[in-house]
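Q: what does this look like with calcium ion bound?
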Amino acid sequence: MRAGSLSSIDATTGESRPRGKPVVLLVDDDIASLMMAEGPLEDAGFQVVQAVDGVEAVDQFNRHHPDLVIMDAVMPNMDGFEAIREIRKTNFGHHVPILMTTGLDDLESITRAYDEGATDFLTKPINFFILPYRVQYMLRSKETADELRSSQARLDNAQRIARLGHWEWDIGSDTANWSLEVARMFGFDKRLLYGSMESLFSKVDANKRQEIRMDTEQAVEAGKPITLEFNIQGELENDLRSVRLEAEPKIDSEGNCTHMLGTIQDITESAHAQKQIHDLAYYDLVTGLPNRAQLRENLAQALRLSERQDNQFALLFLDLDHFKQVNDTLGHDAGDDLLVQVSQRLSGVLRDSDTLSGPNNHDDDSASKNTVARIGGDEFVVLLGSINRAEDAARVAERIAESTSAPYTISDVEVAVTTTIGISVYPTDGRDSETLMKHADVAMYHAKENGRNGYQFYSTDIHEHALSRFSMERELKLAIEDNQLSLLYQPKLDMVTGETIGVEALARWNHPERGPISPTDFIPLAEETGLIMPLGKWVLEESTRQVQKWKDQGLGTFSVAINCSPVQFTRGNMIADIDEALKASQIDPNLLEIELTENLFLHNIENGIQLLNSLKGLGVQIAIDDFATGVSSLSYLKRLPVDKLKIDRAFVEELHVDKGDEAIVSAIVTLGHRLGLKIVAEGVELEEQYDILRKLKCNEIQGYYFSYPLSSDDFEQWVHDQHRPLVKTGTA
Ligand code: C2E
Ligand code: CA
Ligand code: CA
């Protein structure tokens, strides 16, 4: 499953958004603008959700809670101004940045946009290249604003807690001034903020009063700073408060101390306050669990101890599956409630698991402790301070999975949540915090890929897998530049005449060291990395050139089918590329067949249809590849300007043994023919399959039964040899 696909954030399916990819809601009634903006935004690492009018925009906003909205001003149904107003009314819409785009650059609509709550403004035509930077910039400002809001609150808190007063003593006249806080601390009249220094000393605990007096006088004489701690009689009876006094002398030009300037802090509560400040910084407010900062410290301690004592310890990375769904459907309070309940269960599991700890884990400070921390939205980390074997960690993981998957009652609703867990173990999987965290995270992702609700240890296999992908990406890039790619051509035959009427071009990667690599291995990688764009362009140019060459040589007139990924349309400039290739090769556009899969229509049928129309405008043929394996909905088929359906090999494979498959193929043929479409069957390997397809009146066939995919030379030979298929006599 590709992490970037839109379906994975669909709120209705409950899939959670891939971490770290900001979602942008793109609203415009002009489909062309939508498509032009989508590519650059996706390339810049955003997930794009679209809407074509205000009503749909509000709906999409509520479903996806995007991080940012790009809103067209003038649209049918509900215009952008009204949509912004609606969005701002929602819970999630208060602070979301909204960028308004419009063709109107008059002052009035700019003012109006801001009045309705737009964050920023952009006049059309939009420079789509610049757009992602603008979006990134807006998101960064939003983050800064968010941080400011929370640090201001923290500062207020700290000042309220600090209880700090100041004072100044003029030694010549023996008068002292003090601040309101000092007056309050000492129980003085709050309207008289001055007196003698002795009035301050008089409040000092009798046992220490003389000592404090002398220390202060000595400091004045020596002209040195001083720090003293003592108790004073506070405002209330029997309220002894401990304070800390700090003072600095002010020295004149002759070297005499003329003043003492100082602070007095009530530290009775500062110990307590310090804990509060510490807690603010080190604990998660929602669950009361240690946060990432605290985890980091405990982890550092675990590392130090384990190094010294030669222990093993484990990190478990937990991710709640479907947490986002709860948050979205029941609200944030319910989400918080769920997090609290989960954290209680996790702590429970750890308490019960204390006995598993290694022999070194005594109840003293020399043993590293177990920690449950919440490090982000729905992510928890469990640190098992000391284990004997990796299996201990697996046991805890199992208990966590079991405990967290029992149903929860949240706002009177029963909710089910499951956990995916990734595990890394010191020292095998890493010898420093960062590596251990990273590897537990990687293992967690791997566990997710293998299906939810499970755990997975980090292994070098996973690592190697990731590495080899990385190097493969680099090599594929080189391969495209270095002409390591080639095309094979698999003949397609007319069912009635048995003539070779065309070929399907299939890409091959001839790796200099690893030998040939299958397209099923490198096409997905190319799609993910965007390398499919240059690759697809090359396939297009090479195959059309080849077919025209065969025609010029007199070998015959063949159509050529090429496979295209949806990405090439949504991110690349496929229409222009095809137009160019047609012109460059001079082939009859009718001979070029574009094979597309149903995935193209997955996200947005309307966009898909528009695309097909532009394609048809070039005069090429369109075939739906792997038909009936995807999200095919027969109902929209009649709206699509396509020419052919290519029945997937999966249905042909067991055609001769599985009556069900025969029924499906028969239905596809009947339906297709009624809609005026040609039916192509691929993957024909056996005579029996061929017989049935002929009986069902399939139009074109392709498969190993006739020929493997051939190099261009071999294909020429094949045609020369008049290598004809086993066409049965009689009408087909
Ligand atoms: P596809 O479009 O379904 O292509 C048909 C695949 O079935 C080809 O595999 C072909 O060699 C194989 N095949 C043909 N006849 C038979 C048969 O009788 N039996 C069996 N078992 N297999 C048969 P190939 O060449 O490995 O291509 C795999 C997939 O890679 C293609 O599936 C296509 O989706 C993708 N692909 C190949 N070339 C390109 C390309 O240039 N661009 C893009 N975007 N995708 C490509
Ligand atoms: Ca194909
Ligand atoms: Ca296929």
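The chain is about 45% helix and 20% strand. Residues 1-19, 155-160, 355-366, 725-732 have pLDDT under 50 and may be disordered.
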